[in-house]
Write a sequence for this structure.
């Protein structure tokens, strides 16, 4: 029997028909609303357009996402889609690389963020958290994101340089924090959403200010590289030492520009997302009293605070962190995967050049996977294990976040340390919304809180 001609035909992908300009404006100003509307109208695979972008396909179908994460990764190009990050991180940044070069750099940068090397930071993370919150005063309001940023920045500076104290590191920490604060509002974040705005129009513009501060940061990094190169006895287990010592197969060391770009990638990637994710976790814990009660019961039972590895395995704490990353992911999408060859997924045939974009936000809000998706329910992560295509706050495949294990480790230790030292309260009158901050999303206003009392009287 002849196959009916319709089944041989190309399945046509649906999506909004408005111009690239309108779609870009909508997704910039109303990212959550426009995604939800498109999901309701067109389903879990739809096409989209952006100014100057190749055809986009937004995916929140786990089977399709599985294809993107598990197919031969040479089918895709990722670096080009991340060009907006070039002025921030530099052209040699891991996020801009593809192929062998990407693989080699990933292999080099991976070990410090996993296994025993990562675990060796446990005590230090707790000490840094305790030190940073030591200026809190009872009933004096503060913005929790300012503090989670101070903690995560200090932690990553320690991992990169092997030190986090001293005049030059204090200067570096302040410079990086001020630098990223330039883009702390949704409107100012437009510089990263629309790379054509990235123009130096004189000393008064934000972009000019951004470039100036970046130069200062890179000068400090150059001084650090020189110091370690000229004094081999200073080489240690830190990431900078690793980069200076490594040689490629021809025996060539990494060049200074390449080292600086990778340092910027780790310094930036290694703290911005963690700071926002931690601020969200503090928010949710205090927004849901029953969650806080259950979590405190678990934390109060910790006998040995030195056993940081055991703390990071606590089931309810782990579920709270997982649920916080589900309900308020700081990245709405993974990196876009641009096809180098034609590919068929679930009957749709995609041409070379198409950008496939797994959508973390829409997938994390699927009712069939997460009943009552708007409710903060850590229990769902205790009752069920989700697949890496249903739950992926750190992306997947060969681009999966390099620091995912480290970020989870850090988040759990900071929450456990802070919550067992102090009792906090939320001062927000309304539910806090997620808003753009540079290339990621963060709680709007940073979450206002105050200190109610000091537990056990120990805030050193
Ligand atoms: C809660 C905190 C964090 C979140 C939510 C997060 C999320 C992500 C996501 C969604 C991606 C894209 C993955 C993909 O497209 O498949 C990514 C990539 C990346 N992340 Fe993270 N991240 C976090 C913390 C960190 C930390 C602590 C580091 C420290 C090194 C880091 C370094 C990177 C790097 C270097 C990449 C690029 C990987 C590549 O291109 O191969 N991130 N992250």
């Amino acid at each position: 029997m002849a196959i009916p001609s319709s089944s041989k035909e190309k399945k046509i992908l649906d999506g909004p028909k408005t111009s690239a300009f309108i779609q870009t404006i909508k997704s910039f100003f109303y990212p959550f609303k426009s995604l939800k509307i498109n999901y309701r109208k067109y389903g879990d695979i739809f096409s989209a357009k952006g100014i100057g972008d190749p055809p986009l396909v937004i995916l929140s179908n786990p089977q399709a996402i599985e294809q993107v994460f598990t197919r031969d990764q040479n089918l895709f190009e990722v670096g080009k889609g991340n060009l907006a990050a070039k002025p921030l991180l530099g052209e040699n940044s891991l996020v801009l690389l593809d192929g062998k070069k990407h693989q080699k750099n990933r292999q080099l940068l991976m070990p410090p963020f996993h296994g025993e090397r990562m675990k060796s930071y446990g005590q230090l993370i707790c000490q840094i958290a305790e030190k940073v919150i030591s200026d809190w005063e009872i009933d004096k309001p503060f913005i929790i994101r300012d503090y989670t940023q101070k903690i995560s920045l200090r932690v990553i500076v320690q991992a990169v340089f092997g030190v986090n104290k001293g005049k030059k590191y204090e200067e570096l920490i302040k410079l990086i924090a001020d630098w990223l604060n330039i883009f702390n509002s949704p409107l100012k974040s437009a510089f990263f959403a629309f790379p054509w705005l990235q123009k130096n129009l004189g000393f008064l513009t934000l972009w000019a200010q951004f470039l100036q501060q970046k130069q200062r940061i890179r000068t400090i990094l150059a001084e650090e590289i020189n110091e370690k190169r000229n004094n081999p006895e200073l080489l240690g287990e830190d990431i900078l030492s690793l980069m200076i010592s490594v040689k490629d197969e021809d025996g060539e060391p990494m060049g200074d520009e390449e080292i600086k770009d990778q340092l910027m990638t780790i310094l930036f990637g290694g703290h911005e997302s963690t700071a926002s994710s931690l601020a969200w976790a503090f928010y949710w814990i205090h927004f849901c009293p029953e969650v806080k009660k259950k979590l405190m019961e678990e934390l109060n039972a910790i006998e040995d605070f030195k056993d940081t590895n055991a703390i990071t395995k606590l089931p309810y704490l782990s579920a709270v962190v997982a649920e916080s990353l589900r309900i308020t992911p700081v990245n709405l999408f993974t990196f876009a995967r641009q096809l180098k060859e034609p590919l068929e997924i679930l009957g749709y045939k995609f041409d070379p050049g198409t950008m496939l974009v797994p959508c973390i936000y829409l997938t994390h809000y699927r009712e069939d996977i997460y009943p009552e998706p708007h409710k903060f329910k850590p229990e769902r992560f205790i009752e069920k294990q989700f697949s890496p295509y249903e739950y992926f706050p750190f992306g997947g495949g060969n681009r999966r976040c390099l620091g995912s294990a480290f970020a989870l480790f850090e988040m759990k230790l900071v929450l456990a340390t802070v919550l067992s030292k102090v009792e906090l309260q939320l001062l927000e009158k309304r539910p806090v919304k997620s808003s753009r901050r540079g290339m990621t999303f963060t709680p709007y206003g940073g979450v206002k809180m105050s200190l109610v009392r000091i537990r056990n009287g120990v805030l050193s």
Confidence is low (pLDDT under 50) at residues 1-7. The chain is about 50% helix and 10% strand. Residues 94-95, 106, 113, 265-266, 269-270, 273-274, 277, 330-331, 334-335, 393-397, 399-403, 406-407 surround protoporphyrin IX containing FE (CB under 6 Å). Residues 10-454 form a domain with the Cytochrome p450 fold (CATH 1.10.630.10).
